[in-house]
Prior knowledge:
By secondary structure, this protein is an alpha+beta fold. It has one domain (about 5-190). It has helices spanning about 5-15, 35-60, 80-95, 120-130, 160-165, and strands at about 100-105, 135-140, 145-155, 180-190. It has a 4-stranded antiparallel sheet with strand order 1-4-3-2, with helices on both faces. α2 (about 35-60) crosses α3. The protein is globular. Bound molecules: heme C. Heme C binds near residues 181 and 182.
Amino acid sequence: MSIIRYSVYLSIMCSVLACNGEKVDKVQAGVSYQTLADSLHIVLASDRKAYEDIIFDRLGRVERVLLPHTNWKEEKTVPFPSQFFAEASQLTEEMGAKFSYVLISKYPLNKQNKPITEEEKRALDFVYSNPKKNYYGEEIIGKQTYFTAAYAETAYARPCVTCHNNHDKASKYDYSTGHVIGAIFLRIPMES
Ligand code: HEC
């Protein structure tokens, strides 16, 4: 069974069984909000990892031809993966996508990546305590209800740990491999 077919199957099973007692949305028009969020997350996380492996890590840490810099435009070099992610998120919005996404952390190196809404804070609390589980919830902004989802961003490689612990903007210095550094947070408008 392909991954997509499997996740559709899983989400239908989840809506019937209410997986682990966690909040599960209704199946709507064949695809649930949860399946949609999970699928979007796979695309976002793969794009982020592709940039990290092909550009950031290879040209920076391995070949040392382009060292990343926060002011990458002025310094004529490459951005950090989180900056690349934020640029893509803004473009997605400008291109008219109905959903939106951000990278957030409890201890961000860039304070713009702090959680803003109560729902973002709740989602972060959840993934920090349950790194292997995804968070699903709902949030009302203005008159619109959003399906929300958050996915842990863990320090899967040594450079994540070294750089985040030693950065001059760091407020947490004891990350180890496998620790949660932040989360990808998604918002999808729900139809009433
Ligand atoms: C060489 C340094 C470096 C490495 C390696 C690195 N990061 Fe970062 N990371 C940064 C910087 C700098 C920022 C903030 C950039 C910005 O938005 O201005 C950041 C931002 C982030 C954020 C958003 C929250 C925040 O701190 O602002 C997350 C989540 C994150 N990184 C996770 C990771 C993960 C996971 C890895 C490993 C796969 C990793 N980083 C590797 C330097 C690094």
